[in-house]
Design a protein that fits this description.
The chain has 192 residues and is mainly beta. It is built from 1 helix and 10 strands, in the order H-E-E-E-E-E-E-E-E-E-E. The strands form 2 sheets. It has an 8-stranded antiparallel β-barrel with strand order 1-2-3-4-5-8-9-10. A hairpin with a 5-residue loop joins strand 2 and strand 3. The longest helix has 17 residues. The chain is elongated, with a radius of gyration of 20 Å.
Length: 192
């Protein structure tokens, strides 16, 4: 049953992105610190989009988005992590392109621990492969960025997104990590 729930959570954003709405791809850095580098890939679609024009003629935009992200990071001599998480977000864009947003993602994190060994009944030592942990994660974050399509007519935005990742499973209770995401978003379609 869990398998079908995960398939549904992953398939829903892909299905939503196939509809005629504002769809974007993102790629960027994802890491715990400079010494724990990684990469983040994502796709998202707007399911509610509202532009508000003020009396002074300035237009602000509110968007609610749903998507999925795939990422990974490397922690030297500790573990390598790969995550897959559906994500919901709210994004506010000012008339000149500056952006602020709030995101919440929850999903699956698989860690792989390097240099692990097993000892069999005969006392022989052999290397173990793919040793690691399965964890459920929740990742709230705040996003700051700039939409370059407002001034330069480019379908690109850059962003910086500090993230707090809670991991459930593995250690005693929960583990918290501070992550930093930074990258670009490319608009595939924009039906406003």
């Amino acid at each position: 049953m869990k398998f079908f729930i995960w398939i549904g959570l992953i398939a829903l954003p892909l299905y939503a992105c196939a509809q005629q709405k504002s769809t974007s791809l993102q790629i960027g850095y994802l890491g715990g610190q400079i010494t724990h580098p990684g990469i983040n890939l994502g796709i998202s679609q707007s399911f509610f989009d509202k532009s508000v024009t003020k009396d002074n003629g300035k237009t602000h935009r509110h968007e609610f988005r749903y998507g999925v992200k795939l990422g990974g990071f490397y922690h030297h001599n500790m573990h390598t992590g790969i995550l897959l998480a559906p994500e919901a977000s709210w994004l506010f864009t000012k008339h000149k392109g500056s952006q602020i947003g709030f995101h919440i993602a929850s999903g699956y994190l698989r860690t792989f621990i390097p240099k692990t060994f097993t000892v069999d009944e005969g006392g022989n030592i052999s290397r173990s492969s793919l040793t690691g942990n399965n964890r459920f994660i929740i990742m709230p974050s705040v996003r700051f960025g700039k939409d370059l399509s407002k001034k330069q007519d480019l379908p690109i935005a850059w962003y910086i997104q500090p993230t707090l990742m809670w991991q459930y499973g593995g250690f005693n209770g929960t583990t918290k990590y501070f992550l930093l995401e930074a990258g670009i978003t490319y608009q595939l379609s924009n039906n406003q």
